[in-house]
C-alpha cells in the first residue's frame, strides 16, 4: 500500500520556501518549471519524493525536458534535492548500488546477484540519476522491509516497466520473502528435482537485493550429498556458499544473518532459459531517465558543481560521447592590431556566444584553451547543430566587428566514440583516443568549416541536416597525428 502524500505538517514549508527564495538568484530559470515545483512538491508522497525522474516530471506536467533538468540541477545546488546515482542492471532494472557521489560509482563493472550477471559500469545507460528531497525539507518515512511489495519497489527502478507476462513468471518462481534481524535466521523446506521442462537441473536461489548478494544451489545428479539440510550464511562480504551443486531431493534450508544489519531476503527457483524467452517475447519498456552521461554533459551541472570534491582516481566509462573542439582564426593578428584590451573583450564575446550555444544544444563546456574550447554532447546531432549555430553566431559578431576593422574565423572538429571521465587538475575531463581524434580533426578545418568523423556522419539524421542547411560535403581519408590508421572524415562548408 502506497503511503499518503506528506502533509504540510510533516514537510518543513519554511525551509522549502527558503530554497525557492535561493533559486531567485538564478533569474534565467524557466518560471513554468519553478512554479510546477512549488505546486507539486508538497503533494508528492514519500515514494515519489525518494527518486524523482526529471523526464517523468516534465512529461507529467507538460514541461520542457531540458528546462526541467536544468532547474532540478539548480535546485540540488541550493539544497532542495540530493543527487542519487543508481547502478541499474539492464536485465532486471534492479538498483544494484545507490550512491550520492560520482566517485562512488564502480569504475569497471558491477554484479547483479538477482540475474547473476556482470554489468559494465557505463555512464550512458547503466547509471540512473535521480533527485531525492533533502532531509531538511522532509524526512522520508519509507520502510523497504515492510513487505515484499515495498522491498521490490524500493530496490528496482520504476523506469523499467516489466510486461505483465514477465512479472507473472517472476512471481511464480518466488517461494518466499523473509526479513532477517542481525544474527537472526529462518528455515524453509523445498524440493529440488533433477531437471525442469528445459532439461536443466533445478536451481534454488537465495538473494538479498539490499546487500546485493546471492547463493545458488544447482541440482546435479552426480553431486555429493550434503545430507538433507543446507546452510547459508550472510557475511559482511555476502552470502556463502556462493554456488554449490547438490543432488535432487527434499531439503531443509537454514539462512543465517551474520552481519550487524537488518536485511531482506528472498528465495526462489528461477529458470534462466524461460525468463530470457519471456523477456524476448514481451520485452521490458525502459522509460526515459537522466543518465550520468547526460548530467556530465549538462552546462548547469558543469558550472554549479565545478568545485566538486571528487576522487583523483575517478575513472568512469562512457561508450558514446560526442566531442567538439573549436579554434579561432585570426585572433593572434587581432591582438597585434587591436591591442590586448580590445582583443580580450572580443574573444570573451565569442566565448559567451559559444557557451550559450553549447548549453542550448544540450552540451557542456569541458574547458577553454587559449581562444579554443572543448565541449561534449550526449548525441552527435546535438554536437552538429551546436557547430552550425556557432558559425552563425560568430558571423553575427563579425558583422559588428567589421565596422572597426576586425574579423575572426571559427574552425570546428567533431568526433563520436568511447571515452573515460577522469579528474585532472581538480576538473572533470575526458581522456581517450576519441578525444585525440576530435582535436586532430579540428586541426584540419579551415575558417568557417566543420570537419566531422565518419562516426558522426553515419549517425541517423546527420546527412539530412547537412542537406537541409544547404551545406556541401567532401569525404576523404586523413592521416592524423597519433592515430595509427587513416581516419575517414567529412568536410562541411558553404
Describe the structure.
With 494 residues, the protein is of the alpha+beta class. The chain has 3 domains: 13-159, Arc Repressor Mutant, subunit A (Orthogonal Bundle), CATH 1.10.10; 164-283, no CATH class; 302-493, Nucleotide cyclase, GGDEF domain (Alpha-Beta Plaits, 2-Layer Sandwich), CATH 3.30.70. 32% of the residues lie in helices and 32% in strands. The chain has 16 helices and 24 strands. The strands form 6 sheets. Strands 17, 18, 19, 20, 21, 22, 23 and 24 form an 8-stranded mixed sheet that branches. Helix 4 crosses helix 5 and helix 12 (340-360) runs antiparallel to helix 13. It is elongated. It starts with 12 loop residues before the first helix and ends with a strand. The model has no long low-confidence stretch (mean pLDDT 90).
Amino acid at each position: 500500500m502506497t503511503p499518503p502524500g506528506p502533509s504540510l505538517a510533516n514537510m518543513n514549508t519554511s525551509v522549502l520556501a527558503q530554497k525557492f527564495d535561493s533559486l531567485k538568484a538564478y533569474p534565467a530559470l524557466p518560471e513554468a518549471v519553478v512554479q510546477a515545483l512549488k505546486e507539486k512538491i508538497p503533494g508528492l508522497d514519500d515514494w515519489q519524493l525518494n527518486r524523482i525522474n526529471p523526464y517523468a516530471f516534465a512529461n507529467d506536467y507538460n514541461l520542457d525536458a531540458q528546462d526541467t533538468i536544468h532547474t532540478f540541477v539548480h535546485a540540488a545546488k541550493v539544497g532542495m534535492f540530493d543527487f542519487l546515482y543508481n547502478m541499474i542492471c539492464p536485465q532486471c532494472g534492479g538498483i544494484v548500488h545507490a550512491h550520492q557521489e560520482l566517485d562512488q560509482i564502480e569504475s569497471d563493472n558491477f554484479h547483479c546477484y538477482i540475474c547473476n550477471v556482470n554489468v559494465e559500469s557505463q555512464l550512458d545507460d547503466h547509471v540512473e540519476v535521480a533527485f531525492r528531497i533533502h532531509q531538511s525539507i522532509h524526512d522520508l518515512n519509507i520502510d523497504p522491509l515492510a513487505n515484499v511489495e515495498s522491498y521490490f519497489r524500493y530496490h528496482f527502478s520504476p523506469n523499467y516497466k516489466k510486461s505483465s507476462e514477465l512479472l507473472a513468471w517472476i512471481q511464480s518462481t518466488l517461494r518466499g520473502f523473509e526479513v532477517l534481524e542481525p544474527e537472526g535466521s529462518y528455515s524453509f523446506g523445498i524440493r529440488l528435482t533433477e531437471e525442469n521442462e528445459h532439461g536443466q537441473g533445478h536451481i534454488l536461489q537465495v538473494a538479498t537485493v539490499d546487500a546485493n548478494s546471492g547463493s545458488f544451489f544447482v541440482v546435479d545428479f552426480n553431486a555429493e550429498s550434503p545430507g538433507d539440510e543446507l546452510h547459508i550464511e550472510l557475511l559482511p562480504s555476502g552470502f556463502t556458499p556462493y554456488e554449490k551443486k547438490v543432488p535432487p531431493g527434499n531439503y531443509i534450508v537454514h539462512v543465517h544473518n551474520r552481519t550487524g544489519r537488518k536485511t531482506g531476503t528472498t528465495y526462489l527457483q528461477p529458470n534462466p532459459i524461460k525468463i530470457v524467452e519471456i523477456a524476448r517475447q514481451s520485452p521490458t519498456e525502459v522509460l526515459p531517465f537522466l543518465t550520468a552521461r547526460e548530467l556530465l554533459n549538462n552546462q548547469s551541472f558543469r558550472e554549479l558543481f565545478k568545485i566538486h570534491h571528487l576522487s583523483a582516481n575517478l575513472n568512469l566509462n562512457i561508450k558514446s560521447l560526442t566531442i567538439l573542439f573549436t579554434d579561432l582564426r585570426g585572433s593572434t593578428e587581432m591582438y597585434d592590431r587591436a591591442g590586448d584590451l580590445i582583443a580580450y573583450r572580443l574573444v570573451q564575446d565569442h566565448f559567451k556566444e559559444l557557451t550559450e550555444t553549447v548549453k542550448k544544444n544540450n552540451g557542456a563546456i569541458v574547458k577553454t584553451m587559449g581562444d579554443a574550447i572543448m565541449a561534449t554532447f550526449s548525441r552527435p546531432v546535438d554536437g552538429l547543430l551546436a557547430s552550425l549555430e556557432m558559425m552563425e553566431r560568430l558571423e553575427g559578431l563579425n558583422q559588428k566587428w567589421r565596422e572597426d576593422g576586425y574579423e575572426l574565423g571559427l574552425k570546428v572538429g567533431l568526433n563520436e566514440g568511447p571515452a573515460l571521465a577522469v579528474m585532472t587538475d581538480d576538473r572533470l575531463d575526458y581522456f581517450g583516443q576519441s578525444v585525440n581524434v576530435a582535436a586532430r580533426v579540428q586541426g584540419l578545418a579551415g575558417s568557417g568549416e566543420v570537419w566531422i568523423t565518419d562516426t558522426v556522419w553515419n549517425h541517423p539524421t546527420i546527412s539530412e541536416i547537412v542537406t537541409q542547411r544547404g551545406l556541401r560535403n567532401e569525404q576523404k581519408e586523413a592521416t592524423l597525428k597519433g592515430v595509427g590508421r587513416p581516419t575517414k572524415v567529412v568536410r562541411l562548408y558553404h
